[in-house]
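Please decode residue identities from the backbone states below.
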């Protein structure tokens, strides 16, 4: 029933990363959020190919609610309409959302949302993800090439009969993956570590700016503390001894910092569409921070040559 579905690594990583961002073990369960996003793609020769996933919104759990409800704000609808024009000739082939640490299914609210998509395009799909399914297996030992909800933590659904509206039953859609399953699973494994560290669920502008300001001070302080101390030493042999003692730690810090900043730039790819200006701004700021580190690395080399 309906077009076959094909996914690649790119949309899967964005879906799982978005879900992890708002529901992970660094956040108390009462504050977990459910995410909502759009699936971009195309349909050709009875094949629905998902080419991208765009995280759009999230909601925070309310203790009085058994299930979370997540949807679009008026601003989201405007942004989605603008994005729809930008991605043409591709279009939105469905939607995705998360059920953190609960079963994979379509709730009554999800049925209504899916009906909206399938009313416009009968082949449209609803993808439901629960990243906690992936924590129940050892990803590093994963070597099974079969596809199931345990592979990437999601299922895909369609309504059986849209003429019945929200009274329609839904069914699970078989899908195919184009890419290396093991490498993608290991990349997801990394996301469980990186997303809570580098992409907080809120206040990201303040947190990113504080991080940048702090690192700028540390970068300068580490170099100048060594440089100033050496200038005070009159004995050349003692200078060399001090430098050789502290140089490896400072250099390791600079190199490690560059790797960390690059990870921060990478996870910005998983931010919500409404955060695109923040993504653009801090990608540039993080890249500039790397240039600062590289500049002090050069100063360190010159200091080494002088000694």
């Amino acid at each position: 029933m309906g077009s076959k579905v094909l996914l690649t690594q790119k949309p899967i990583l964005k879906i799982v990363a978005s879900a992890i961002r708002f529901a992970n073990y660094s956040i108390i369960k009462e504050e977990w959020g459910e995410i909502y996003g759009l699936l971009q793609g195309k349909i050709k020769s009875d094949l629905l190919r998902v080419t991208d996933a765009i995280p759009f919104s999230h909601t925070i759990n309310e203790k009085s609610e058994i299930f979370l409800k997540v949807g679009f704000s008026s601003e989201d609808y405007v942004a989605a309409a603008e994005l729809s024009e930008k991605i043409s000739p591709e279009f939105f082939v469905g939607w995705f959302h998360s059920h953190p640490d609960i079963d994979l299914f379509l709730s009554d609210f999800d049925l209504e949302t899916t009906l909206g998509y399938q009313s416009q395009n009968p082949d449209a799909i609803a993808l439901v993800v629960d990243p906690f399914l992936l924590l129940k297996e050892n990803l590093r030992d994963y070597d099974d090439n079969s596809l199931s909800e345990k592979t990437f933590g999601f299922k895909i659904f369609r309504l059986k009969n849209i003429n019945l509206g929200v009274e329609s039953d839904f069914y699970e859609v078989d899908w195919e993956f184009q890419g290396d399953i093991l490498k993608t699973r290991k990349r997801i494994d990394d996301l469980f570590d990186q997303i809570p560290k580098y992409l907080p669920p809120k206040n990201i502008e303040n947190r990113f700016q504080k991080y940048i300001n702090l690192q700028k001070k540390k970068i300068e302080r580490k170099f100048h503390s060594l440089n100033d101390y050496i200038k005070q030493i009159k004995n050349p042999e003692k200078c060399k001894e001090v430098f050789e003692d502290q140089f490896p730690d400072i250099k390791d810090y600079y190199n490690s910092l560059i790797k960390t900043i690059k990870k921060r730039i990478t996870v910005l790819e998983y931010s919500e569409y409404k955060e695109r200006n923040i993504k653009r701004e801090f990608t540039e700021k993080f890249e500039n921070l790397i240039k600062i580190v590289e500049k002090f690395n050069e100063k360190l080399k010159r200091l080494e040559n002088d000694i």
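Observation: The first helix runs from residue 9 to 22.
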